[in-house]
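fold-stage: in
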Amino acid sequence: MVIATIRNQKNSNEAVDIVYLPSFNSFITEGIYAIFGQKEILIPVYMVLKDLDLVGAIVSTILEDMSLSRENGEDFRFVEHFELMGKNYKIEEKELWVELMEQREDFAYI
């Protein structure tokens, strides 16, 4: 089930869907590999339910970076940690995809 489609504003042929992946109780992008040859992005259900627009902004930002890298003839690499709209996120590389996660602060009590 497709819940959203994200299109490149400069090239509307570059469209990535966000689809529900019930076997992992997550959402996953569909189209990144076909367009850019990169792994799809797995997104936890709670992030999509909490703020679909924010997840769309995150995926859109990553797609823009992929597109710019390709236009400039550079290799794209997922960044491990990034900040968007005042929140910290991380991307963890897995065998078949990369997983998007909220970066939580670890607090140590002294």
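fold-stage: in (second)
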Amino acid sequence: MKTFKILLDVRNVLAEFDGQVKRVGFFVTKIVDAPNLNLAFEAAKHEVLHSAEAQRIFKNASDDPPQVVLEEHEAVNRATGEDVETGFLFYEE
């Protein structure tokens, strides 16, 4: 099993901030243990889209889902402290 650092760009997100719904995107870094990159990407995507934060603020209809793009990836070693995740870093679309 490998450990991957995955940077995702999540686009087309309808999100509620201070009572207003806006179309935004965001970057997020996830650390995932998986046998290969494809499974690491799918695990990271699932973790982000089904997180408590996503469930709270995402307002997308089922026929207009967020789009998730793998921006960067690298194999990391947890023992060396390379396994730092980030929160959602939003940008307006």
